Input
Amino acid sequence: MSAGTTAVRDSVRPVLAAAVAAGLAVVLSAQAPRANLLLITLDTVRADHLGSYGDKQAATPVLDRLAREGVRFADATSHAPITGPAHAGILSGVYPARFGVRDNAATPLPPETFTLAEGLKGSGYRTGAFIGAFILDRAYGFDQGFDRFDSRFDRFDTRAKLSAERPAASVVEPAVAWIKELPSGQPFFAWIHLYDAHAPYTPPAPFNTTFRARPYDGEIAAVDRAIGTAITALEARGLLDRTLVVAIGDHGESLGEHGEDEHGVFLYDSVLRIPWVMRLPGRERAGTVIREQVRAIDLMPTLLELLNVAVPKGLDGESLVAVVRGRARQDPPPAYAETYYPKLHFGWSELRSVRVGDWKFIEAPRSELYALRTDAAERANVAATQGGLASRLNAELTGVASGWSAAPARQAPAPDRETLERLRSLGYVGFAAPSGAAGRGADPKDMVAKLRSFRQLVTDAAADLKNGRPAAAAGKLKQALAINERAYDVHIALGDVYMESQQHEQALGEYEAAALLNPGSADPLLAAASALLAEGKADAATRKIAEAEGVEPLSHEIPFARGRVSEQMGRDAEALAHYDRAVAANPSDARARARLANVAIRLDKVDVAATQFNALLAAGYQPARTHFGLGWVAEARGDRAAAAREYRRALALDPGLTGAQKALSRLEGKR
Ligand SMILES: [Zn+2]
Output
C-alpha cells in the first residue's frame, strides 16, 4: 500500500476516541435522531489557498477548524472546471456529460436526474438551498428536491446573467434564518453556495485592505467568515454535533498558471484540485486526513450513506464511507474530467483528462501526460517518452466516457439556405457546415497566448457600447472575431450592437452564427427571436422561441419572449399570462416584472400592477417610474392623496418624467 492510498490519522487522542465511537453510534443507529446536513460549495476556491491545505498566509480559521474536527480529503478532484457542470456532478453523483450538461447557463440538469436533495427529501428531510450565482438557478435544474430555493439577485440583468451573484454574507443570512425557523425533530439539509472567490476579486472590508495585494485570498477569507456565521448559529442552537457539515470546492482557479487567469480552458490541477473537508456528527474521525484520490462525484453517495439513506444504483461516484473509517482502497477509481468551454466559447478543441494513481493524461489535439507525484505543477509533458502509458490511459479515458454516446451534447441542425446566405454575406464561411464536421478546433494551449488580447477587445467593446459608441464597439468585436471566428459569445455581442443601430438583418446573421457554434445555449435563438420581432416577423420569432424552449425548457426568458410577441400582436391578456410565468420562473427578473405591471395597467388589473410595482420598488429598479406606477395604482383605488404623493416622489427622483407631471396636474386640477 503506497502512501498515496493510506488514510492517515493526523492526531488521535484518547478522549477524542470515545467521542468518535459515540459519534459513530449516532450516525449508524436508526433509532437515534437523524443528523442534519449542511453542504457548503466553495466556488473557485483552490485547495492550496486554505490554511488546512498548507497555505500559511490564508485567513481561513473556520474551514481549518472543520478540517481539524473532521475529515480532510487531501487529494480531491473535480470533473469539470466550470460551475454548472461541476455542481451538476456534485449534487447527482453522476458525470454531468451523461445529461449533456457541458456549459454554464445552458442545457439544464434534466428533471429525471436523482439528486442529493431528492434523496434526503424522500426520507423525511426539510431541504433548503441558498445560491450565490444565477448560473445555479432554477432555470438550470438545480432546485430539484428543495422545499425552499433562495436565489434572489438584486439588479439582475438578463444580458449579464452569467455574472449575477450575491456576496457570501447575503447567502448565509437567509440560510441561518431558515434553519432557525425549522420545527425541531425533523432533520434538515441546507445547501449554501458561495461564489465570492470567482473573478472579479473585490473582497469586502476588512479584507479589501488586509488582503490588498492578494484580493483572491481576501475573497476566500470573506467566504470563511460567512461560513463562521452559519457554524456559530448551529452551535448556539446545540445543533453542530448533530449536523454533518461539508465544504467542497467546485473547481479551482488558474491564477496565471499555464497562461490562464481564471478557469474553464484547461484541465490542470490548478483548476481540478478542490478542497473537501467534512465535520461528522459528534466529531467522528476528527483529524483524519485521506490521502488517496477522491472525486467530487463521490460526494453524493458518501453523504447519503453517512446519513443512512439508500444510495441509488447507476452512479458514477462511489461512497467513501469505508475510506473515511480507515479502509483505504487498493485501487481508487480513475477520475475523469472534461471541458467543452474552449469549444463552445472559443471554437477551440474540447479537452478530456483522466487521473489514475500518480498520473494525469490529458486528451487534446496534442495530448499531455504528467507525473503528478514528481511534477505537481504539470510542467513536463512526458506523453512522447511514455507513449505506452499514455495510450493505456487514453483507453481508460475512452472507457469511462464510452456509455455517453446515448446522450451526446446537442448538435446544431444544419442551417437552411437563407441562413447560409446571410452568414456568407457577413463573410462567415468556415463554420457554416453543421457542427462537428468543421473539425476539432485548435489546441487550447496553442491559443491561450491570444486569450488576453481577445478578452481585452471584448471588454473594451462592452465599455464602448455602454458609452454610446456602437461603431467603435463593432470594430473591436470584429477584431476579436478576426482572432477567433468561432467565439459564439462575440457573435451575440456583435448582433446586439447591430440591434442597437437597427441593423436587424445583420444582427440575425450574428445570432444564427452563434446558434450554430453553441447549440446547447438558448441565448442565440432568443436573440434571433427578438431581431425577427423587431422586423415584424412574429411567426418566425415564435418558431425561434420554440427552438429555444427545446434547449432550455425551464428558462424564464422563454415566457418573457412569448410575452413580447403577444404584446406586439396586441394580445395583452396572453402577454400578461406569459410575463406572470416569467416572473415565477425568475423572481429577480425586474424587466419581466416591469412588463407585467405595464400590461396589468392596460388591462386595469390594479392588484397585479400593485404587487409588481412594490416588488420593483423593493429591488430598487427604476424608482421614478415605479413611483409613477404606484401613483396610478393609488388613483385606480380612489386614493387621490396617496396618488399625488407617489407622483411627487417620482418627480423628485426624475423631474423630467412628463407622465407624472401630467398626472399630478390633472389630479390637482380636479381639486
Ligand atoms: Zn464555479
Remarks:
- The chain has 26 helices and 16 strands.
- Residues 444-466 form the longest helix (23 residues).
- The CA atoms of residues 31 and 649 lie 61 Å apart.
